[in-house]
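Trying the structure run again after the queue cleared.
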Amino acid sequence: MTKVLRFGSLLLDLFFPADCRICKEMLGWNENYICNGCFDKIEPLRPPLCVRCGKHIDGGIICSSCKSRRIYFEKARSYGEFSGVLKESIHLLKYEKKLILVDKLANLMDGVIDGFESKFDYLLGVPIHKNKERKRGFNQTELFCYFLSKTRGIPILPGLTKEIDTPHQVGLDHAARIQNVKNSFRWRGNKRQIEGKRLLLVDDVMTTGSTVNECSKILMAEGAEIVCILTLAST
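Done. Tokens:
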């Protein structure tokens, strides 16, 4: 299904040139949905950043959110802020199925990996429930993992699943987000593969961090040494 969607997106780009979704200028022959000029305006997050979740803070070393709850992941880092061109790019991928953007977006994430002190044994994508994946046709975090696995040589570890088809997190406050994803993930893989391993968990957007923290809780309970988080954007 993913290959069909990607090929269909490419055919549309070849035969139906369009304007950039941001600046409205005509796209070039090698541009897709967002022109290179606009895409190059996506800026990485700048310090000071919270040492745990990686979000921008005005002062100190750790944000109030990380201070107020138990964090199961070692460190989280995002490429940029969930706004502007980056937000539009993610929406085009997730909701309009523009899979041709996967490699450009994953390439941004690739540069963030060097900011982790750890060398990772495995990559894992945050899973979505099978009903949502069937409806969408793909899980974007898995596609990011495929790209990163090729560029970094880190194998992908299957086994983390979303067992409960929870409502979307959009619109929920912090407490509701935590409750919404609680106990919704399971580890169905080989426990011996995960014990003592250093894992990099990949997602598209981190808002409160409730989803990645719940996943990290499961992975740490199964014996992982550490779990770090890599996302494309954070709010």
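Strands lie at 75-81, 122-125, 160-162, 185-187, 198-206, 226-234. Worth checking whether this holds up in the mutant runs.
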